[in-house]
Amino acid sequence: MSEAAFEEVSVLSSIYCGEGEFLLVQQSAQDGLMVQINSTVGGERGPDVRLLFQLHPRYPSCPPVISVSSTGLSRSQCHDIRQKLLDQAAALPPEPMVHQLVEWLQQCVEVTENCRGNKEEDEAKEEGRKRDKEEEWTAVLSLDHIRSQNRYTSQLQRWTQQLQLGGRLLLGRSILVILQGARPNIKEFCRLLRTVKVDVDSSGKKCKERMMKVLTESPTSSSGGHGLQGFVVMTYESIPQLTAAFQEINMTGLYQQIRPSLSD
């Protein structure tokens, strides 16, 4: 096992120091480490969730294997949480991540709320989610800065592929990301952008994109777009060039909406 893995387990045992919160289940040179963390999701009155993290001997170069169980959630809800955690782990850089994943789990309140809502509310939420998935949306994001361009761009492209989004990255005085696809996937992209270290700060330390802004978000039918394919990086040096970039993808109307928000 790597020294980083042992250090992380030591830190985890200090963080989750309450009775029954943390357990080192297994430790071997062949199979690695297995830790169990019991967490309450959605506040003090939320259901308890038991998380098992299998850390391979090559961890954190490879993400952990995760299992989820709970007496307060259904099997399908546990499966959904597990899949979300696995997707999140795959999107993170190869660094110790267990604590970050447990913290991220607290953001899955929407998943666990189903166990406390009535049937009519649950069905309405599910119907709304289906509509969002079926309807294509377009969003334009503004980024504060990109210092490590290769690293940052590669991560953005990876996320658009994983989330089945079309994307354009426009590099100039204003840094813009245009996304097109299912609305929940666009929201997940924004969440990843704010929570994953995608760039470096002025001192060279890895940092998150906390200054990202959503300039506009609307159904694609109202934005005038005709469907973005893949992920393309475009550079512009002037406002006319930026205008032309939006014209090229048939989004002039969208550009007029965000123009007041852009730097001159």
Q: Can you give keywords for this protein?
A:
264 residues; alpha+beta; Ubiquitin Conjugating Enzyme; 11 strands; elongated; cytoplasm; RWDD3; RWD_dom
What does this structure look like?
- This protein is of the alpha+beta class and 264 residues long.
- It has two domains: 3-125, Ubiquitin Conjugating Enzyme; 133-261, Alpha-Beta Plaits, CATH 3.30.70.
- 41% of the residues lie in helices and 27% in strands.
- It has a five-stranded mixed sheet with strand order 10-5-7-6-11, with helices on both faces.
- Strand 8 (197-200) and strand 9 form a beta hairpin.
- The radius of gyration is 21 Å and the shape is elongated.
- The termini are far apart.
- Mean pLDDT is 82; it is low at 114-120.
- Pfam families: RWD (PF05773).
- It is found in: Cytoplasm; Nucleus.
CATH fold name of the largest domain, please?
Answer: Alpha-Beta Plaits
CATH architecture of the largest domain: 2-Layer Sandwich
**Unreliable stretches covering 5 or more consecutive residues:** 114-120
Q: Total number of helical segments?
A: 10
CATH class of the largest domain, named Alpha Beta
Span between termini: 52 Å
How many domains in all? 2
Give a topology summary:
Layout: H1 3-15, E1 22-28, E2 32-40, E3 48-55, E4 65-69, H2 75-91, H3 98-105, H4 109-113, H5 119-134, E5 136-143, H6 149-162, E6 166-171, E7 175-182, H7 183-195, E8 197-200, E9 206-208, E10 213-219, H8 220-223, E11 231-235, H9 239-248, H10 252-258
Parallel strand pairs: 6-11
Antiparallel strand pairs: 1-2, 2-3, 3-4, 5-7, 5-10, 6-7, 8-9
